[in-house]
Fold these 2 entries.
Entry 1:
Amino acid sequence: MLENLTAVNLILLGVAMFASGFIDAIAGGGGLIQLPALLIGLEKSETVVILGTNKVPSIFGTTASALIYRRNIKTDPKLLIAMALPALIGSMGGASLASLIPTQILKPIVVALLIAVFIYTWKRQQLGLIESMRHGQSQRLRIAAAAALVIGFYDGLIGPGTGSFLVLTLVAVFGFAFLSASAIAKVVNVATNFGAILIFGLNGEILWKVGLTLAIANVAGGLLGAHLALRGGSNLVRKVFMAITLALIVKVGFDTFIAM
């Protein structure tokens, strides 16, 4: 079997990839399931190799859901470019440092940010349910580019919560509805995954056979999740976003303060 994985382990990883793709397509946060599953399933591999391999199914699943969103939701091409390019560059920078910076020291900051995201969204019940744009276009593009660069760097370096940070930025800062924000976030996430794959791939830190095999399940989950999000609208995306953000707080908090 692939990388000495048994048939049972491969099936379990496939189920995890499907669930990850499904959740990620709706509101981000698929890494909550995907990365821990790979850490367990590929326990004999180096952490940086697991981080690299993790990006392969992610980019396929995210691309599949992004295409579904693009067919159904109109988004500003200038905004997509303004976010995707800096996100790509940021992700490459983060991935380059992934094996050098102990990510454990950054996790308390991530927990604090996720808690802030959850509280902010919970206290504003109407947030993201109706689109109400803010800022002029030129200012919007500048802010979006800066935010994408920072979030892209984070995704290449660590990853968990990237979708949540992208969605909340688009909703809270620019006034997008949750459904539109999720559609834009998917395109940006494709860029961050691609940037990380370039670096991890060049460094030989990707198990390609494992990643490409698991990508099939991730794509299936991504397609189903995107279709469900389109049918459920911003209200569904907001609910899933809240649930995933809370789960991320628990997971990253446990890894940071309890499992040390």
Entry 2:
Amino acid sequence: MNSILSDFVVTNEHRRFAEFCDACRRYRYIGLCYGAPGVGKTLSAANYTYSARLETLAASRLGAEAEWAVGAVRTTVLYTPEVVNSPSRIEQAIHMKRHQLRMLAVDVWLEDQQIQRQTWKQAATLLPPKRVEAGSRPNGKVVRLYESAATPMPPFGAAYARQRETMPDPTDLLIIDEADRLKNAGLEQMRDIFDHGDLGMVLIGMPGLEKRLSRYPQFYSRVGFVHEFRPLRAAQVRELLGRQWLPSGITLPPAGMTDEPTLAAIIRVTGGNFRLLHRLLTQIARIVEINALQTVTSEAVEAARESLVIGTSS
């Protein structure tokens, strides 16, 4: 997943998507997100999943001893159904991902406990020993004994086992990518997961997903938000290239990348499609290297376009 996110760039469309997911999380609604292939839906979902953290933590949610977890625990699960799926496999896969979040929360607790114990040991060494009076000897002299003045910490093993057993599931948003793969039985399984869990849910798919789901009133009645993930506008592509963004591992001569004919050609070919922009820039880099060009020209863009399998963006 990190390799996928290495090319991620925050755009206005991603910000809109993040606000949409935040609303589904906050109000515990089902949200539908649809968009054409290649506009960046999956990348945005992955980035949101791996950057979403617990901002506030009520004692009623993760227990009175859970203040350690603020700002540390991921709370979003991203799930992509297999091409061939069944309700039982969907349930098992999502259960496993939610269990992994629980274990991450336990790991954060464990790290915090280790820090606390190290701090306790350092503080204990600075405290003067506490004097303990023992009984008198036969000769009448009083025996002076000393012990640590630090309050002893409870046994760690039992606390860790109890934390693993009682740690609640922190999941508060479930994102389903490639939701078009879900058949009727799969949608019913998603509805059951939503009904039995205090969480929000986002389904991501192709245009027409919202129309298809509207034919299932039991599911569609739970939908609170619908969001269209749009291609980048021309001004956004200009801004992106103006910041000298390139796919990872790709280098291009800076000369020509801000030239108006070159920019216009890139915008016309890609149509704001992020995946097509990624592939076009990769092909441009190949053309530039083969021809030992010192600048990126509109001719180089056209040559790169001709080598793309998918051609121009419609």
